[in-house]
Request: fold
Amino acid sequence: MQEYDIVVIGGGPAGLAAALSAKEEGIENIIILEREAQLGGILNQCIHNGFGLHTFKEELTGPEYAQRFVDKVEELNVPYKLNTMVLDINKEKIITAVNDHDGMIEIKAKAIVLAMGCRERSRGAINIPGSRCAGILTAGAAQKFVNMEGYMPGREVVILGSGDIGLIMARRMTLEGAKVKAVVELMPYSSGLKRNIVQCLDDFNIPLKLSHTVTNIKGKDRLEGVTIARVDENRRVIKETEEFIKCDTLLLSVGLVPENELSRKADIELSEVTSGPVVDDSMQTNIEGIFACGNVLHVHDLVDNVTTESYNAGKNAALYIKGKNFRGNYIEIRAIDGIRYTVPKYINNENVEKFISIRFRVGDVFRNSYISVYFDDIREMHIKKRILTPGEMEDVKLTKALLDKHSGCKTITIKVEKE
Reply:
């Protein structure tokens, strides 16, 4: 059995940042396990720009952003194994993995950083009726075909779901010569960033049909078209509004799910809202010595936020190796009244140096509202927001001084208030 101080599972932006952070804290015995043939994760197929504005103060493409971290990994001689699939982890921090060079391997870790990312929901997860013809792909699969393999999935396209990948692929398919007939969204609002709606749809006159869904798929061997319809406030189809759109390709951008099969095997507590691990301010899960960061924890809109979070996870994994105990008197953070969840879920005031960022998403569109933060029953923050949407991640910073002021506090509550 091989032994390492820290094992990072996943070589995407989260795993790379966590490994580099741990290395910079002085931990030498680290390894990154990555199932793909190269480091960089999903960023390798995201050839559009818009990455790195916060981290590097410049606009980069996805591969350029990833390469900055890959170069640093090579420079610091952080070891990694590619084409390595992790099959199992347990709460004793024993990892079982397999690759074509080593065969089956077992690794004993003192600490583990989970950075497996997320996956797309498929057609089977959303139960669209109709035939099982060719031409139906997730938006991410289409992105890989176009950007990395050089294949065009189709010429007449409908996109179901207005997540960021779907919006970006609407623009990408258009630039490659396809006709995007419509982006169809079940909810009365888009789940993507506002800038992507403007740059990917509005700039190319691609219609966004809110409160609509696909009700049927037509085609035998190849997709011939889809039927769409309006839905009511309970998301029930309004039959008389159905219309048929002729197309040869349907791209699905219907949500991302954190990859947590391994987390379940280690008995890690998962959030019912995010499907990611429940963590404290150190990014540590309920299993001591196992940390989580990036899209395996909760789905991010900006990779810069993934990097910040992952630096924190890697640093704290290193401090854990050096003997730091992050457990203590936890304050629970409650998300209610419009707030879907928070990361982290628990804070130990003793671990906070200057401030801690609490990230969260709202569950609906709110206009001219306030984000309020209560320490037990005392409201300490009341932040005016012109608009809040589920597609944009929000955050509040709780200072050390504020936490010290309420040192006996049991719960911190974050909610949306109208006044």
Remarks:
- The domain at 1-120+256-325 is CATH 3.50.50.60 (FAD/NAD(P)-binding domain).
- The CA atoms of residues 10 and 115 lie 5 Å apart.
- The chain has a mean pLDDT of 95.
- The two ends are 59 Å apart (CA to CA).
